[in-house]
Design a protein that fits this description.
- The chain is 56% helix and 17% strand.
- The protein has 462 residues and is an alpha+beta fold.
- Among the domains are: 166 residues, no CATH class; 152 residues, Heat Shock Protein 90 (2-Layer Sandwich).
- The strands form 3 sheets. A 5-stranded mixed sheet has the order 2-1-5-4-3. Strands 7-9-10-12-11 form a 5-stranded mixed sheet. Strands 6-8 form a two-stranded antiparallel sheet.
- Helix 1 runs antiparallel to helix 4.
- The two termini are 58 Å apart.
- The relative contact order is 0.06.
- It is an enzyme of class 2 (transferase).
- Its EC number is 2.7.13.3.
- It comes from Aliiroseovarius zhejiangensis.
């Protein structure tokens, strides 16, 4: 129980209430001592009134009066005359004197604590004002034994009362904390354990129910986290299923493309000029498709294989991409331009670089065709001492804000109907494999520009 939140709260509440009672006890016991001394002054004054009524009283009566007042002698100052009214033998000389007329809260507390921690009885003189103007000053001498006993009895009563109040208060707070905090927290913990059993089951997602603001915020945050996690797990499952399907399709497609490659090889012996011009490009395209299928079957994972670096003539690579995209554009008014320094070569995997730029150019062409308006796609390359920078720009309609937020995420970075959202994600992963980056440089109504940066250092292209 003491290791639980409610149990510790119970203990702390009891301790804090007891501490508060101690802070109350100190001034209250000082007040009790003052009242005790003033009561003895009043009793002594009453006893002295007997002597004022009759100048001569029997010694036995005088002793009885002093005993009832619990004092040894009484001195009363009246009309500027200090007179010993009642007297009896004292067991010892006066040890201390206390003037209640000049006492302060601090001095009362100090004297009370000193009396509690001084077990030896003492004879003290107490000076105060008489009640009902019965004189100017009244003084008494008394033993402190009964005073200290009365103060200890009062302290015990205060302690018992404080203990009862502490237990009752802590019990009420214990019940309140269990109902307002512990139970909702246990409910959240129970939901987390239940959700962990089957996180893909949306029925296990927590439904916020508490009215406590802080706990409700925690429940809402947990609900959002569980919702996102459930969606991610479902997407992961779909991706796994898709991966299996792609592997099977790639296997069959590789066989089909292999047959097509055999027929394409025979086209090279044709004497038709058109066939001679188009045949090599067709063979190259089929070879790339076969290589892609084989990589998919061999790798079988979400990431791409490490690039096989070599020197690539960028202008030739861009020319092959433009030729393919011109055929795909058909009758649509899409022009292609390149601004690549003559003979510029860069160190990259030719197949992977082709896939990166092909994805970018294809997306640009599809965006322009979708508008039904003329447009242009340009590839520009620059070189610094540290890297190569390739920009692919188009005059299309630009990318909407939701697409920009998830641009390089699989199945999320597309706004084109029928698009899978994989092209840019694959291109970005291939760029990272070279130690480079693929980023959106700008987009808007006047077009979109992507920038591919490839480092020259081989160490960054592992």
């Amino acid at each position: 129980m003491f290791n639980t939140l409610s149990g510790r709260f119970l203990i702390l509440t009891t301790l804090f209430v007891m501490l508060a009672e101690v802070l109350i006890f100190v001034p209250s016991v000082a007040r009790f001592r003052e009242d005790y001394l003033r009561t003895r002054l009043e009793r002594a004054q009453i006893a002295s009134l007997v002597l004022l009524a009759d100048d001569m009283i029997a010694p036995e009566l005088e002793a009885e009066l002093l005993e009832n007042a619990e004092v040894y002698n009484v001195v009363l100052r009246r009309d500027e005359v200090r007179e010993l009214m009642l007297a009896s033998p004292m067991p010892q000389p006066v040890d201390k004197s206390f003037d209640l007329r000049q006492s302060t809260p601090f001095s009362l507390i100090r004297d009370a604590m000193a009396r509690l921690f001084t077990p030896e009885p003492e004879v003290i003189r107490v000076i105060g004002d008489p009640v009902r103007e019965g004189g100017l000053v009244i003084e008494i001498t008394m033993m402190t034994g009964k005073l200290r006993s009365a103060m200890l009895e009062y302290g015990r009563n205060i302690f018992y009362l404080s203990a009862v109040i502490s237990v009752i208060t802590a019990g009420l707070l214990f019940v309140a904390v269990r109902s307002l905090m512990v139970r909702p927290i246990k409910r959240v913990v129970g939901n987390m354990k239940d959700y962990a059993i089957d996180p893909e089951d949306a029925r296990r997602i927590i439904q916020p129910s508490t009215n406590v603001t802080e706990l409700r915020e925690a429940e809402l945050a947990l609900k959002s986290l569980q919702t996102d996690l459930t969606g991610a797990l479902k997407q992961k499952e779909r991706l796994a299923q898709l991966g299996g399907a792609v592997a099977r399709i790639s296997h069959d497609l590789r066989n089909i493309l292999t047959t097509a490659q055999l027929f394409a090889d025979r086209m090279e012996s044709s004497k038709d000029p058109m066939v001679k011009r188009v045949g090599p490009k067709l063979v190259n395209s089929i070879q790339r498709a076969v290589s892609l299928c084989e990589n998919t079957l061999t790798f079988g994972k979400a990431e791409e294989p490490a690039p096989s670096l070599g020197w690539v003539v960028l202008a030739d690579l861009a020319g092959d991409i433009f030729d393919s995209e011109r055929l795909a554009a058909g009758d649509h008014d899409v022009s292609f331009a390149e601004d690549i320094p003559t003979g510029m070569t860069l160190r990259a995997d030719p197949e992977q670089l082709y896939r990166i730029l092909s994805n970018l150019v294809r997306n640009a062409r599809q965006a322009i065709v979708a508008t039904g308006k003329p447009g242009e796609i340009a590839v520009q390359a620059t070189e610094t001492k540290d890297d190569w920078q390739i920009r692919v720009a188009d005059t299309g309609p630009g990318l909407p804000k939701p697409t920009q937020d998830h641009l390089f995420q699989p199945f999320a970075g597309t706004n084109r109907r029928g698009g899978s959202g994989l092209g840019l994600a694959i291109a970005a992963e291939l760029a990272r494999g070279h130690g480079g980056t693929l980023a959106l440089e700008k987009t808007g109504p006047d077009g979109t520009t992507f920038i591919l940066t490839l480092p020259k250092e081989v160490a960054h292209a592992d």
